[in-house]
């Protein structure tokens, strides 16, 4: 029985990974395509308006811009597969190195945001779900709806105003590597992570509340109550465990917004992560860097989705047969 | 025979009227739907009638001597770094928000619904091709795709709307497809086909109207996201351009003066939050009203 389930899970996982590879190829085509229909001549951008036509032509030749687009695509894709994403037109550094430098900062920020959101949202949702229609529940709802409705950058500005400008307790910008200086790292990530995690926290609170209420109505809970199991055990040992699936769904649905938020929040806090790198590349029309960073962010995004889906399939085996893709 | 069909027609109209009355009753007793309607109604009133009382010249009038005035009788929401009245700009910003929501969700619906409908109705390779393409578009985090598209088209409010619209096409295609797939199985669709109706007619006149409920819900929730995304793009400097009184841009401009003139950020922030809240409540409410089975399942959410 167990091995049958395992085999089924393996098949499901294999299919999902296969789909991921196809999607990745598609994403690379779209990214390359969008960037290469950018108006503006890259050669002109590098050399400036005063460059002679001969020098422009020579640069186009050396960058390979005169070749057909699909050849350039295959060339680029081949490079990407071997870890070579070309060189940044603006910085001259290898794109892959720039990305590897920035990736840990963004991962730390996103991780901190998720941790904050989950540790705040689950207890809040439980309190609200247990004390339904009381002032506790009402306050939680107000907090949740505020989180869903406020733009993350606005919330970021408010946090800077209060904690950096007014109380001067936390730095308003920058990044410190937490592996080198854990306290400094946490202090620098606190405000951006709070801004980024607020919306996720709000969605999670609402979902925890409603799925807990649902679970508390279930037959097994009534049975447990009649057998004298304490309310605390019912909530924490039984109902909450079953309420976890919908919560996981919310996290899955919100990952995209978390990644979108990273681009904006890193801008607000001058946080040197991947989102800021991609944004600056877009402003600078740094085509190789745009291609590399956008592809990387999309890849990490898809991998996170895959992990959530697989986790979901492990927790709820029905997903594997029900076409959960 | 004629009398019979007249009876049938009368029975149908009665049934339809009862259904509408029932929907309206449920709508009125749904507090989220009512609250959402009030908030969005307010936005529409301000957005439509505000410009009759406030001109763009007034809202952009510089008065440097009176800059950074805190909220008071002369300027209920204060003035900004150029001495412009924040209230007047908020009023005109409401129309921009309506424009943002309408255009981007309009684009997403106009492209996503037919794509999803055709995919669900035709099936097979067409379905696979369309939906795999949608999957690829969905593999980008939403704002990132919009950012890239704006970078291609150049920064402007309209381009930002187009970019956000494109980003949301796959969400509409997905919802529409899954509805169409289930509606196509129904008897009345088979009957229409058996009567020899053309496929395009069956799809747009028989199938789609019966698949509308989740699409409407998706539209309302997407409006909330569109307003947030547009505010984000304007905040990054890629959406509305100065001196347009867009709420997102106003927050961008307030950044340097935050400690000095927080009202420059607070009022546009409230504007965005109210609008987003309104569309979210409306979307939740409409879902409950149009789909009672779903709200029964998720009953806990509405209490």
UniProtKB/TrEMBL annotation, chain A:
Q: How does it sit in the membrane?
A: Multi-pass membrane protein
Superkingdom, taxonomy of origin: Archaea
What's in the keyword line of the UniProt record?
Answer: Cell membrane, Membrane, Transmembrane, Transmembrane helix, Transport
Q: Which InterPro entries match?
A: BPD_transp_1_N, MetI-like, MetI-like_sf
| Principal localisation | membrane
**The protein's name:** ABC transporter
Q: Which residues form the signal peptide?
A: none
Subcellular compartments: Cell membrane
Listed transmembrane segments: 17-38, 107-129, 141-164, 184-204, 243-269, 289-315
TrEMBL record, chain B:
- Where does this polypeptide localize? Cell membrane
The family database entries (InterPro entries) matched by this protein are listed as: BP-dependent_transpt_permease, MetI-like, MetI-like_sf, OppC_N
Please state what the protein is called: ABC transporter
Tell me which GO cellular component terms the UniProt record holds.
Answer: plasma membrane
The UniProt entry, under Gene3D superfamilies, shows: MetI-like
The transmembrane residues are 33-54, 96-122, 143-169, 215-240, 261-282
- Give the ABC transmembrane type-1 domain ranges: 94-283
Q: How does it sit in the membrane?
A: Multi-pass membrane protein
Chief subcellular location equals: membrane
Xref: SUPFAM superfamilies: MetI-like
What does the entry give for GO biological process?
A: transmembrane transport
